[in-house]
Design goal:
Layout: H1 4-36, H2 40-52, H3 58-70, H4 74-87, H5 92-104, H6 108-121, H7 126-139, H8 142-155, H9 162-172, H10 176-183, H11 189-201, H12 205-216, H13 223-235, E1 253-256, H14 264-275, E2 287-292, H15 303-322, H16 329-332, E3 338-353, E4 363-370, E5 383-386, E6 402-404, E7 410-415, E8 419-422, E9 431-440
Antiparallel strand pairs: 1-7, 2-3, 3-9, 4-7, 4-9, 5-6, 5-8
Length: 446
């Protein structure tokens, strides 16, 4: 028989449990409020407090994961998302976000599995289809990537950036008319630039000129538009201006990164990391007798990576200041909010990179960790620049490439619009470099 005192104790426990639950909800709600208002530092304190108190709530770990990712703490973000999934196994958004983290960490195959799980849990999850498409595109599964982008457009017709990604895939396959069909539905700068690029590929000079005149009033400032105009000026004998960069070859800078700025020890650690076998590589049709790492090297939490990034940031600032009096758009409109992405390229003898540019970037650079001694060819392993876009018509014109000599410890920085390639080398050692892009934030890249 339960006595009066026992019943009172039981009521107190229930009341205390309710109070505790109410307190938890209040703290979590406050954290979410700060995060929604953009006060991430205060939100992070609240989330960490929740974790320290042992709150087992999926929202805490998922939302904290977003903050950690934005701060660049990807390993911690991965752990936080995995904890959210452990608490709530059917949490599709956490699987999708985890997939993005894993991709940046270079774990592309794991990323694919995580994104497929998100879609399995939530079949109408448009963002997950987009993220999976980017992974598949990186892995070379272009057909399924296109199907995912098309599915995302069906689910969320106005979702930002997807039309450009899908149209880009058709463009790369030479299906310019099909690309234009999609591009007509989107008036973003990226889509308008790609539309003009399609007209150039089709060699429709009159239509190209009309579209250029239409777009010139919008003062589009991006690398792709600049590359299109520089090539078109040569084949059509015109003098059209770009709002990004004109005569980009004049803005190529090659300097040394000395031992004082970056030690040999860290350079050698970077090379050892590449050779360790603890990396994933991506499908890259532009390279021959070479491998390219996946993900963003600058997402890795290694001292040698942090030191390299710091050295590159110093050189980038010097580069910007060198041209501070320039009227070129890429200097005057230098992004206030940007990110650096990096990967490594390792080539064996006879290896090279085909002509290309980094149309999604602002500036592009390469830091040469190991350039073999030159033997038979004087230009062996050097870098060559040109205004000739490899997919564009030449109309019998000569583009006169400019070759720049590179050696170990050189850093080469140039506008991302500029087409470039490497000359096959005949050295006995591997040619190893770290390539990076400075990318305006919120810019989509594949």
């Amino acid at each position: 028989m339960t006595g009066f005192g026992d019943r009172q104790t039981s009521k107190k426990k229930i009341k205390n449990n309710k109070n505790t639950q109410s307190s938890k909800e209040k703290i979590i709600s406050q954290a979410i409020h700060f995060q929604q208002k953009g006060n991430t530092s205060e939100a992070a304190k609240y989330y960490q407090n929740c974790i320290d108190q042992g709150f087992n709530d999926h929202r805490v770990f998922s939302n904290y994961g977003i903050i950690l990712k934005n701060l660049g703490h990807l390993k911690e973000a991965e752990i936080s998302y995995r904890k959210a999934i452990e608490i709530k196994p059917d949490f599709a958004e956490a699987y999708s976000n985890l997939g993005n983290i894993l991709r940046d960490l270079g774990k592309v195959n794991e990323a694919e599995l995580s994104l497929r799980k998100a879609i399995e849990l939530k079949p109408d999850f448009g963002n997950a289809y987009i993220n999976l498409a980017e992974i598949l595109n990186e892995l070379g599964d272009f057909e399924e990537a296109k199907n995912c982008w098309i599915k995302a457009i069906e689910l969320v017709p106005n979702i930002k950036g997807v039309i450009e990604l899908l149209a880009r895939r058709f463009y790369l396959e030479g299906q310019y008319d099909l690309a234009i069909k999609y591009l007509q539905k989107d008036k973003s700068d990226a889509c308008l630039s790609l539309y003009l690029s399609c007209l150039l590929c089709l060699n429709q000079e009159r239509e190209f000129d009309q579209k250029y005149q239409e777009l010139s009033t919008q003062r589009i400032c991006n690398a792709e538009m600049s590359a299109i105009i520089e090539h078109a000026n040569i084949i059509y004998d015109t003098n059209k201006k770009s709002y990004f960069c004109n005569e980009a070859i004049n803005y190529v800078v090659i300097e040394k990164i000395n031992e004082e700025l970056l030690s040999d020890y860290y350079c050698n650690q970077c090379i050892s990391y590449l050779k360790s076998g603890d990396i994933e590589t991506k499908a890259q049709p532009l390279i021959h007798e070479a491998i390219q790492t996946t993900g963003n090297l600058f997402s890795l939490d290694y001292p040698f990576i942090k030191s390299i990034k710091k050295a590159l940031e110093i050189k980038i600032e010097i580069y910007k200041n060198k041209f501070k009096d320039s009227e070129q758009g890429f200097i005057r409109n230098w992004p206030k909010d940007y990110t650096l992405r990096a990967w490594m390229l390792s080539m064996k003898t006879g290896g090279f990179i085909k002509p290309h540019n980094h149309r999604y970037g602002w500036i592009t650079g390469s830091f040469y960790l190991q350039v073999p001694k030159k033997y038979n060819q004087s230009d062996s392993g050097n870098i060559s620049f040109s205004y000739q876009g490899p997919e564009y018509p030449m109309n019998g014109k000569n583009f006169y490439p400019t070759v720049k000599k590179v050696e170990t410890r050189d850093i080469c920085i140039f506008p991302s619009s500029l087409f470039h390639q490497t000359i096959p080398f005949d050295g006995k050692e591997d040619r190893i470099c770290l390539v990076f892009d400075l990318i305006q934030k919120n810019n989509v890249c594949i």
